[in-house]
Amino acid sequence: MEFLQNTYRTLQTSVIPNISCMLVFYIIISNTVLVLSANTGFECSSVKRVFQDKGIHFSDVPKSPLSGDPLRICSAEASCCTEQAEVMLKTNARQRHDHMVKASLITLSSVLKTRSQKFDDFFKELLVKSKKDFHEMFKRTYGIIYEQNSYVFTDMFEMLENYYAKGKLDLLESMDNFFNILFQKMFTVIYNQYKFDDRYLGCVSEHMKELKPFDDVPNKLPLQLKRSFVATRTFAQALSIAGEIVANMIDLSSTEECARALLKMTHCSTCQGHQLKPCYNYCLNVMKGCLAYHSELDTEWNNFVDAIDKVIERLLGPFNIEMVVEPLNIKISDAIMNFQENAPQVSQRVFTGCGKPVLGRRRRETDYSGGTELSLETLQFSKSGKSHLEDESELGLDKLMKDIRLKVKDTRQFWTRFPYQMCNSDSIADAPGKNDTCWNGTTKSRYDRHVTSDGLSNQQNNPEVVVETTRSISLLNEQIFALKTITNKLKNAYNGYDVDWIDVEEYGSGSGSGDGIGDTEPDSEDDSGSGMYPTEHVVPEVVPEVSQPLPPRNDEDNNLHPIPQDKTNFQQNGTSSGSSTIHTTPKMSLNKALFSYLFPVVVVWFGSSLNEWLQ
């Protein structure tokens, strides 16, 4: 081109007329273009077809190669790309790269979220099945006594479901409350010849820890439940939030410097008439520069992978949720049987501490068998310690956990391996062994530049992409912080510590289980009376089904009422919707008190005398 410019200036200063000068210059130009075409060995029509095959269409492709000097990135001796085409090609290269990055991240995010949802669904089905088996076993074993008090156990399962779904309650305190209520109900069932008011039942509960009517079950079971539920919930949430973190990284778009490098790597060779793939090492440098900020997640991501793996060990071992949730019916039944075995000793100490209760009239519709023993069916449990549900679902849980473990382990060092993954694609770069027949950014030859090391800090020496290594990106910092947060929670769950429940809404859609397992509606049951017997109707049978995870909520007063300071006043045995307000009865007159005391005695004496006279 410099030769042509000098020739043109020489002709202008010559004595040849201007028209003759221009004619000569045109001839020289034409011959030069022919020489360029002959030397390059390609026509721009073939280049245009190559771009069209890639879905790139522009109309200003010259018929023959022109000088590439005006081009900013794809400058060359001869090129079929104009400045306008270069701008379009840069946009195309950037969009293509962002699309491939997005596809990879969506795949990883989907893997994590899908596994989280599978685990979440598995646990919910396990809990529903356990609830159903509990109901069937207790109905078969305890009959009408269980049916009339089934809400106590229904509320326990509802509490466990809500704890898993929301975590906004103290599980240990809730289970302690459950066993206190169970103790009260069992006491009133066994000694149903007596009338118990709230004050007396409160006194009964006060002696529970001292008497240990259920043996060690109230101490061991809540701890086992809490460790397993905390680990299970944290595990499911952590997987889901990790998927959200990956999805959020899609919004981290490529830089302008990256777009320039991508154009040079993917399209400049085509502009020069070459149909070459980039050299593998050349691609690595470009991708390491373009994905430099993504690599900043790698350290915390690896910590997350390690923490998940340790929690899986716990969930397959001592924190196994199946081993805790499924045999709830057996463990609570054992607790009840322990109470029955020790009932005489327990009652004696209760009567000593709380006083002898008043005899009450038994209701005909709830005529239980006499004595202190409940009518029980002998149950045969597997000597291996494994129950029916466990045998059915053990393989499912084991398979699911192993699948999750493998998938998560495969993501270790994902962010530093990301550039290699991109360049391993046959559509992006040539194979590593083809060093002499690939595009090196300038021509068809070996790529001799040094491949930079992994990580953001090393990209300051990247020969292909200018990377601002000190740049602070809020989106990236937020994802790093989120990874640190869930990793710390996983570590706490692994060690059996309490975990502050994660607000999954902060990270997007979350695990999908934050709304609980189902909707509940208040029961319309009449709550009047002692809460032990129905007044005008029998408590309806509750048969939990898999399709209806949450049973109807019972409004029975399950609160424990403390003993009032004034021991002369008694609580009315009324109903409550959650309050434990103490109601006092007006003091009796002396005559009324004597009548209330002597009348039953006289009736009993008269009945006994009449019976002897008839005999």
UniProtKB/TrEMBL annotation:
The chain crosses the membrane at residues 21-42. It is found in: Cell membrane. It is a lipid-anchor; GPI-anchor. Residues 534-548, 574-583 have a biased composition (Low complexity). Residues 518-528 have a biased composition (Acidic residues). The keyword Iron does not apply. InterPro entries: Glypican (IPR001863). Signal peptide: none annotated. It comes from the Eukaryota. It holds the Pfam family Glypican. Residues 510-583 are annotated as: Disordered. Keywords: Cell membrane, Glycoprotein, GPI-anchor, Heparan sulfate, Lipoprotein, Membrane, Proteoglycan, Signal, Transmembrane, Transmembrane helix. GO terms for cellular component: cell surface; extracellular region; plasma membrane; side of membrane; synapse. One of its GO terms (biological process) is cell migration. Cell surface proteoglycan. Belongs to the glypican family. This is Glypican. It comes from Clastoptera arizonana.
